[in-house]
Design brief:
With about 130 residues, the chain is mainly beta. The protein contains 2 helices and 8 strands. Strands 1-2-3-4-5-6-7-8 form an 8-stranded antiparallel β-barrel.
Length: about 130
C-alpha cells in the first residue's frame, strides 16, 4: 500500500481523486468532467455502443467550430479526441484528427443516428441516449 500512496502523490492535481482507487465511481468521474467543461462546449448528442461486451458511450460536442468526441468506456476509462469533420451526402463523416489505426470513422446522420464505419461501409449503429 505504501507504493500506491507514493504514486498518488505524483499524480497531477487535476487527476487526484478521480480514480476507482479513491472510491469515486466512473459515473461520478463522468459527471465531474462534464461539469468542468459546462458552458464551453455545445453538446450534439450522446450514444451507447451496445455491441457484445461493450456498452461504451460516445458524446459529441462542438467547441468553437471544432468537433470533439468524448468516449466513456465500460471499464471507467475516458478519452477525448478532436475530430475532422467532412460533410458528405450520407451525413457528417467524423474521423479522429490523429488517425485511427483500424481505419474506422463515425457517420452522424442528422442529430439522431451515429454509425460506426470503415472502408467496407457502416457496420453498427449506436443507440441515442438522453443525458
Amino acid at each position: 500500500m505504501g507504493l500506491l500512496l507514493d504514486i498518488q502523490d505524483k499524480v497531477p492535481l487535476q487527476l487526484r481523486g478521480l480514480s476507482k482507487l479513491s472510491g469515486i465511481s466512473a459515473v461520478e468521474k463522468r459527471r465531474r468532467l462534464l461539469l468542468s467543461h459546462q458552458g464551453q462546449r455545445q453538446l450534439v448528442g450522446c450514444w451507447r455502443d451496445q455491441r457484445e461486451n461493450l456498452n461504451d458511450e460516445v458524446h459529441l460536442f462542438r467547441d468553437n467550430g471544432k468537433w470533439i468526441m468524448a468516449s466513456w468506456f465500460s471499464d471507467g476509462c475516458h478519452s477525448l479526441d478532436e475530430m475532422n469533420a467532412i460533410d458528405t451526402a450520407d451525413g457528417v463523416r467524423l474521423e479522429e484528427k490523429d488517425g485511427n489505426v483500424f481505419g474506422e470513422y463515425l457517420l452522424l446522420q442528422g442529430n439522431d443516428t451515429l454509425a460506426f464505419c470503415n472502408e467496407n461501409g457502416c457496420y453498427c449503429t449506436a443507440e441515442k441516449i438522453s443525458f
